[in-house]
Amino acid sequence: MKKIIYFTVFSCTALLLSFKYQNEGLILWESKRPLKIEDFNIAKKDTIKIANTIKFKGAESKLIYKYEFLPSTLTPPQVGVKVFFDKHESWMLVRDGSTLEHEQIHFNIHEIFARKMRKSIDSLYDLNIRSLDIYMNKINDWTQKSRNYSQLFDKEIDDKIIFSNGKFLTHKNPRQKIWNTKVEKELKELEKYKLK
């Protein structure tokens, strides 16, 4: 799982930027648009070397937080947060429903923290906070928490990928279903802060 953070200044070209991102293979997180196996477009090696050992990975998603800022000296800055999946930088070795669900959970975790960021931004806006640095500190804090939460998910699941009879197979941890339910519940609790 790889995450990249982009910062952009919001301006009259924001709509053009959004259109450009979609054309470049970025999928905006939407509840009605779950990931599909064919969204994982790039071919990668079937192994990744970790600390002098070879470990098979079933898939890797490149997930992106994109922030848009409209700075102002008279009012609090307007800050937007979006989460994208990058089709051209994501791959899937074990192309099955369980692996897809695993990557969707990662995508959903990022949306949870985007909603937490939006909630914090709304609170700062209500307090008439005008310092962009304060907004950025909140965003950076939530970004780190998102990364930690996603890593905790991977650590608890720790899927086993094996090569057998010419195929890559996975033995999925039953805790993945528990995590899926937990993440769906958190998304629902933060429904108010989904992207409008």
In short:
41% of the residues lie in helices and 26% in strands. With 196 residues, the chain is an alpha+beta fold. It has one domain.
Helix content: 40-55%
Number of domain modules? 1
The major beta sheet can be summarized as:
4 strands, mixed
Shape: elongated
Number of strands: 10
- Numbering strands along the chain, what is their spatial order in the largest sheet? 1-6-7-2
Rg calculated over all Cα atoms? 18 Å
Distance between the termini: 27 Å
Our count of helices gives 4
| Average pLDDT figure | 80
Poorly predicted regions are 1-22, 47-54
| Beta-strand percent range | 25-35%
Which sequence of SSEs, written as H and E, runs from N to C? EHEEEEEEEHHEEH
Question: Helix/strand-derived class?
Answer: alpha+beta
Protein name: DUF922 domain-containing protein
Walk me through the structure.
This protein is an alpha+beta fold and 196 residues long. It has one domain. The chain is 41% helix and 26% strand. The protein has helices spanning 14-23, 97-126, 132-157, 175-189; strands at residues 2-9, 26-28, 47-50, 53-56, 59-60, 62-70, 78-86, 91-92, 160-164, 167-171. A four-stranded mixed β-sheet has the order 1-6-7-2, with helices on both faces. Strands 3-4 form a two-stranded antiparallel ribbon. The protein has a two-stranded antiparallel sheet with strand order 5-8. β9 and β10 form a beta hairpin. α2 packs parallel to α4 (175-189). It is elongated. The chain starts with a strand and ends in a 7-residue tail after the last helix. Residues 1-22 and 47-54 have low confidence and may be disordered.
